[in-house]
Design brief:
Blueprint lengths: L1 E7 L6 E4 L22 E4 L5 E7 L4 E8 L8 E8 L6 E11 L1 H8 L14 E9 L11 E5 L9 E5 L4 E2 L6 H21 L7 E4 L5 H12 L3 E6 L2 H9 L4 E4 L5 H8 L5 E6 L6 H7 E9 L12 H5 L4 E3 L3 H4 L3 H17 L6 E6 L3 H9 L6 E5 L5
Length: 389
């Protein structure tokens, strides 16, 4: 920061100042000029001298980021230069090493969820190294490897400013790419299985999109908890992965009706809980798969928003229906640390195996979106800042 001091004067008496005082400062000189005339002085009132200090910030740093100026398909994701300032009180600046791609990014791009302003930088998950900390901040330092998942949106960037209380430390044993691929999805799986509906030994659960990023983790975790896991997938290749992830029964929904198959597997009893991230195409069938007093957890809508459901439809079997959001389960700092800590602990112990099946340069985020949206991917997808490759 550069400080420039200047004097302004409004009266003409009492104090004499040389003309040179009002000029820009020059380098000192040792040259002596003989018989030099005295400088001409301007009378100024000492009582009306006002010192002005103007703060001039250094030029903002320019970084590359993906920007969205209008809603639409993957083509609206633009690779642009953006300005990045210094972190303020309670903030840190992070140079991203890996950025998680999630379906919620597509929802914001298409307008299913509303961005606060345009243009905006999408992305709600990243891992990086702290490059600067705001004044007075404790607990974080330059060089720390940190991760965040959720708000604020804006991870599709080489560097970003983050609230320090929204990041969590990444254990040294976990690679940044792995951490970026699992934090948001893992914390989603944690609150779905442990808090939204608490899965226990003996339960039977149905997981749609079982080979997807969240679905894969739900299957692994639910299996470890002692549940019988039924998963739906779109292809035989994904069926193999789902089986490997702990699904006891895998249904290829393009080849057989999943409601009929679930009814056969459960001998007509139904399942305790359905975890449905597909939405419109599976919603009614998911309700049909539930046993009496079963729990319908709708946490996504990759096929579109489900049709409205009358309360009378739930009364048939006294069903429970919820549409949860992870951010509501990690509001406090303690909740955030506990949720993230359990995810990282399960990765370290081998309970959760992370499949980073696809990586793309950040500049090619549009292609990554297109592939995820068309279900060409499985497991986790990670964007790597171009300079970090």
């Amino acid at each position: 920061m550069q400080l420039i001091a200047s004097f302004r004067c409004h009266h003409t008496h009492n104090l004499l100042l040389p003309n040179s005082f009002f000029s820009l400062p020059t380098a000192p000189t040792t040259t002596v000029t003989p018989n030099r005339k005295s400088p001409k002085c301007i009378p100024v009132s000492s009582s009306t001298i006002r010192l002005e200090v103007r703060a001039h910030s250094v030029s903002p740093k320019m970084v590359k980021a993906i920007r969205v100026h209008e809603l639409g398909g993957p083509q609206v994701l633009k690779w642009e230069d953006v300005e990045l300032g210094d972190p303020k009180d309670g903030e840190i600046r992070v140079k991203n090493k890996a950025i998680g791609l999630n379906f919620i990014d597509i929802y914001f791009r298409k307008g299913v969820y509303k961005a606060a302003a345009f243009p905006f930088t999408p992305g709600m998950e990243a891992v990086g190294i702290v490059t600067a900390v705001g004044s007075g901040l404790t607990g974080r330092k330059v060089g720390d490897i940190v991760a965040y998942a959720g708000n604020p949106m804006g991870s599709y960037a080489e560097e970003q400013i983050l609230p320090a209380d929204k990041v969590v430390p990444v254990p040294p044993s976990i690679d940044p790419i792995v951490a970026a691929s699992i934090l948001l999805k893992g914390m989603t799986a944690q609150f779905l299985l442990r808090r939204c509906f608490k899965v226990e030994r003996g339960h039977t659960v149905l997981v749609h999109a079982a080979a997807g990023g969240v679905g894969s983790l739900l299957c692994q975790w639910a299996n470890t908890l002692g549940a019988t896991v039924i998963g739906t997938v779109s292809t035989k290749e994904k069926a193999i992965q789902a089986k490997d992830d702990g699904c006891h029964h895998v249904i290829i929904y393009k080849e057989e009706d999943f409601v009929t198959r679930v009814n056969e597997i459960t001998s007509g009893q139904g399942v305790e809980v359905v975890y449905d991230s597909v939405g419109k195409d599976t919603f009614q069938g998911s309700l049909d798969c539930l046993k009496t007093c079963g729990f319908m957890v709708s946490f996504g809508q990759s096929s579109g928003s489900p049709d409205p459901v009358p309360l009378s439809a739930l009364a048939v079997k006294s069903l429970f229906l919820t549409r949860p959001t992870m951010m509501h389960y990690t509001i406090t700092r303690d909740e955030l640390l506990e949720t993230a800590g359990e995810v990282f602990a399960n990765v370290a112990s081998g309970v959760l195996r992370v499949r980073v099946n696809h990586t793309y340069p950040l500049s090619q985020a549009a292609q990554a979106h297109a592939d995820l949206e068309s279900r060409k991917t499985s497991g986790s997808v990670v964007l790597i800042p171009d300079g970090a490759q």
